[in-house]
Amino acid sequence: MTSLDDQPRLSRRGFLAAGAGALAAGAVVGGWTPAFAVPAGSLGSVGAGSSGSLGSLGPAAQLPTPPDFPSDISLFQQAYQNWSKEIMLDATWVCSPKTADDVVRLVNWADEHGYKIRPRGAMHGWTPLTVVKGSNVEKVILADTMTHLNSVTVNQGSPATVTAGVGATLDAIVTELQKHDLGWANLPAPGVLSIGGALAVNAHGAALPAEGEETLPGATFGSLSNLVTELTAVVWDGNKYALKTYRRNDPDILPMLTNLGRCFLTSVTMQAAPNVRMRCESFTDIPWQELFAAKGTSGRTFEKYVAESGRAEAIWYPFTDKPWMKVWTVTADQPEGGTGSLGSLGSLGSLSGKPAQSREVTGPYNYVFSDNLPEPITDMIGAMISGNPAIAQQFGPAMYEITKLGLAATNSSDIWGWSKDVQFYIKATTLRLTEGGGAVVTSRDNIATVIHDFTQWFNGRIEYYRAKGQYPLNGPVEIRCCGLDQPADVKVQSAGSPTIAATRPRPDHPDWDVAIWLNVLGVPGTPGMFEFYQEMEQWMRGHFNNNAATFRPEWSKGWAFGPDPYTDTDIVTNKMRATYMEGVANVPNWDTAHARYNEIDPHRIFTNSFMDQLLP
Predict the structure, then answer these.
(1) Is 313 a catalytic residue?
(2) pTM surpassing 0.85?
(3) Active-site residue identified among 435, 478, 537, 554
(4) DSSP states along 493-527
(5) Residues 6+ apart with CB under 8 A from 441
(6) What is the rounded average pLDDT for all residues in the chain?
(7) Contact indicator for 495, 255 with CB cutoff of 8 Å
């Protein structure tokens, strides 16, 4: 077995050389595409060829050709993999409808021939909402929404809105909004997400208003789902599937705002707010005990940064003492001097003898060091899943050093630009890890208490397992906060909040106004990882279940952990329903959403075997 001392160590010079090589090789821009696509009409010739070529599909992977498929809708076989590559299928049927009417024809064809249709976006998710690991997909067709259903149009008015095809990326939408001096206050980190996929899983960012800050008209600090003013979907009309448009004042729209893929949207209209410039400062010199201190503690605490700026995120690498803390502050003018701290390194300006200053950025994805990892890091990953999980003790510190050195080398510890350019930072080339955790819904006054309790528990358990020679988790802890989907944020007549969003307010607890996202990542294949996630999930469900807070899993991440994620039958079939019945028994809730999905899709075209357990 390889010892820790035998593993490569990362020096500053080594990082800079490796990083330069990675950057010179070029980074993938935008989304990623599976390795091959074989048109339906050419399957007879498939079977030869080298790995990665069309021939790599192989005869064994070929699926029976769907009968009488609409000839003018592109149909092909393609491999499928989710973000963490834990759901991988050698071949699936994929089609690319060009218009909303194509989707209608596709769905009615599927109804007549006994097929399932699953909308496919960027595949940046973990949950088996699209396809199920190991399932039979012979009669499943993935409808690629991103190739053609991706139009974006900005509509001036009060409020200003943007209408987008369901396959338009977040990046494309906010780029167009920015041309009109508009934007969104609360963006997820990956801009590659399709808007349809983002709405399906209640995507959110890491933003709250600072103390005393007023929400701009058209903005929300809740999820993207709360921005929807209108949508068009394919629904059953009593005789066939057809397009229908719903406005926000229609109660029937509420389950569709966060829908888990249980319906097929074709376009959405969403409100927008005046765009703002933000400053993002990075700190890597704050001990975790100080940053995650108990409520009311003085010092550089998460609580302090949220109060001052509202927008904050901590990334705490395993077996390290100082997280990477990012703080976003609305700042109209470019700051003259930087305050972001890299510990002993300082910023690149300090290293070159120049005064530190906030660097203006004119595009997103400014942490290139996190998108192109040097070879020593990939070697460590291989070692951890190949019999030497103790390498986690070196992996975490190495990732911390890469971050600290990378911020300095790219002068990115203090950046300033338009909202999208400092909020988007995860690209398709970012290290792909498994992720578990969820949201603690509570009051803003409890932020420090929730984070302190969780980090103390987590550190204690990690040290407990380390003392036993076990290393079940080797990725970072990620902590961020956002607001809830407040009805007052919606600037058109509204029937209410998204029904099954994790960011939905609790009517019986009007003081609960934040969601604290607590997620832990790990390298796929790590021994004992799922068992640790199960322990963590059970602790969070028990500890944050009182008059001060409640716990809700994050739809796109790992939950219901048993031997594998999504295998705890009690959580899938009972506790998820209970989560969305608590405090909302007499208003739209899980049961009314469940009934609505079955009304608009009575023939269950938009389901799979996992969805049939969750929403039978």
Answers:
(1) yes
(2) yes
(3) 478
(4) ----S-TT-TT---TT-TT--EEEEEEEEE-TT-T
(5) 484, 502, 503, 506, 512, 514, 515, 516, 549, 550, 551, 552
(6) 88
(7) no
Whose tokens are 């076989």? That residue is 77
Which of the two residues, 123 and 341, has the higher pLDDT score? Answer: 123
Residue with the two structure tokens 């390498």: 391
Q: Is 480 a catalytic residue?
A: yes
Q: Rounded to the nearest 10 degrees, how much is the dihedral formed by the CA atoms of 178, 181, 186, 189? A: 20
d(CA 353, CA 337): 14
Task: Name the pLDDT band for 132 (thresholds 50, 70, 90).
Answer: confident
Average of per-residue pLDDT across 353-377: 81
pLDDT at position 434, please? 83
Residue with tokens 């990326």, as numbered in its chain: 169
Residue 278 has pLDDT above 50, yes or no: yes
Question: Is-contact 436 557, C-beta < 8 A?
Answer: yes
Annotated catalytic residue, options 118, 262, 279, 480: 480
Phi, psi dihedrals of residue 599, rounded to the nearest 5°: -70, -45
Q: Tell me the pLDDT tens digit for each residue of 303-351.
A: 999 999 999 999 999 999 999 999 999 999 999 865 555 544 433 433 3
pLDDT tens string 163-187: 999 999 999 999 999 999 999 999 9
Q: Which residues contact 546 (CB under 8 A, 6 or more apart)?
A: none
Each residue's pLDDT tens digit, 420-459: 999 999 887 777 788 899 999 999 999 999 999 999 999 9
- d(CA 182, CA 162) in angstroms, rounded, equals 10
Strand, coil or helix: what is 105? helix
Contacts 24+ apart (CB under 8 A), 14-22: 14/374, 14/376, 15/369, 15/374, 15/401, 15/402, 15/405, 15/406, 15/409, 16/405, 16/409, 18/374, 18/375, 18/376, 19/368, 19/369, 19/372, 19/374, 19/406, 19/409, 21/374, 22/372, 22/373, 22/374
Q: Provide DSSP, 487-501.
A: GGG--S----S-TT-
336 catalytic residue (yes or no): no
Q: Which residues contact 366 (CB under 8 A, 6 or more apart)?
A: 410, 412, 415, 421, 422, 425
- What integer pLDDT is reported at residue 41 of this predicted model? 58
Tell me, yes or no, if 262 is annotated catalytic: no
Q: Measure the CA–CA gap between 203 and 556, rounded to whole angstroms.
A: 8
Out of 230, 281, 303, 313, pick the active-site residue. 313
The pLDDT value given to residue 342: 53
Active-site choice (124, 248, 311, 577): 124
